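for the writeup, i need someone to sanity check this before i put it in the appendix. the sequnce is what the collaborator sent (i think, or maybe the updated version? ugh). structure was predicted straight from it, no edits. if anything looks off just tell me and ill rerun, i have time this weekend
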Amino acid sequence: MGRRRASTSARTVLLLAPLGLIALIFGQGSSPSRTSSPPPVQYVSLPADPPGVEAVATPSAPSQPAASVVPPPETLYVSGHKVPLRAEANGKAAILDRFGPGEAVTVLARSNEWVQVRNERTQREGWIAKKRLRDEAPEQFEKPVKPTISPSVALGTAAIAKLLITASIDAYPSSCACPYQSDRGGRSCGRRSAYSRPGGFAPLCYAKDITPEMVASYRASH
C-alpha cells in the first residue's frame, strides 16, 4: 500500500509540473508592460549680448542698375538726283555710290558739313554732304507730279481734223482720193476723185467733213 501511494504522488507531481511551467510563462506574457516616460525638457536661455555690442544687420543683395534706353538710329533722306556717297568727308574723295531722291540712310557720325551714313539697302557706308540730306520722309518734300495730259486732249479741233483727213486719204487704195490731189501722171484729179464721184469710197477731204462726233471719238480712243 505504501508503495502505491508513493508512485501515485510521483505521477501527480510529474503531471502538475508542466502545468505550472505553462502558467508561469503565460502569466509573465500577460502582465502589463511598463512604459518609461521621456525625460523632462530643459530650456536653456541664451546669454544676452554684452554691453556695447550692437547687432549687425545682414547686408541685402545689391540692386541691379536700371537698363539704359538706347535711342533708335537717326534716319535721313537724300534730297536730289545722283547724290554721291564719298569715301571721305570732302568733295574730292572717291565716289562709292550715288543715290536718288528719297533714299533712306542711317546716320553714323557727323563732321561739320558732312554726315557719315550707311545705306541699309546696299549696306555701303560713306559720307554725304549735309545739304543733300533731309529729316522728312520722301512723301513730305517731293514735288507734286503734274498730271499728264493726253495728246488728243491737248490738240485742238483743227489739228484733229487734219489728222482725220490725212488718215482717210492714206486709207484710199488709189491716188485720187480728193479733188485737189494729182494722179500718178501728174494730172489734177478734180472731178475724177473718189470724193467727187457718188458711191464707193467717201474719203474725208475738207474740214467741213469732220463732225464733232468724229473729234470726240478720236479723243476718246487716243
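The first helix runs from residue 2 to 30. The CA atoms of residues 137 and 170 lie 53 Å apart.
thx in advance!!
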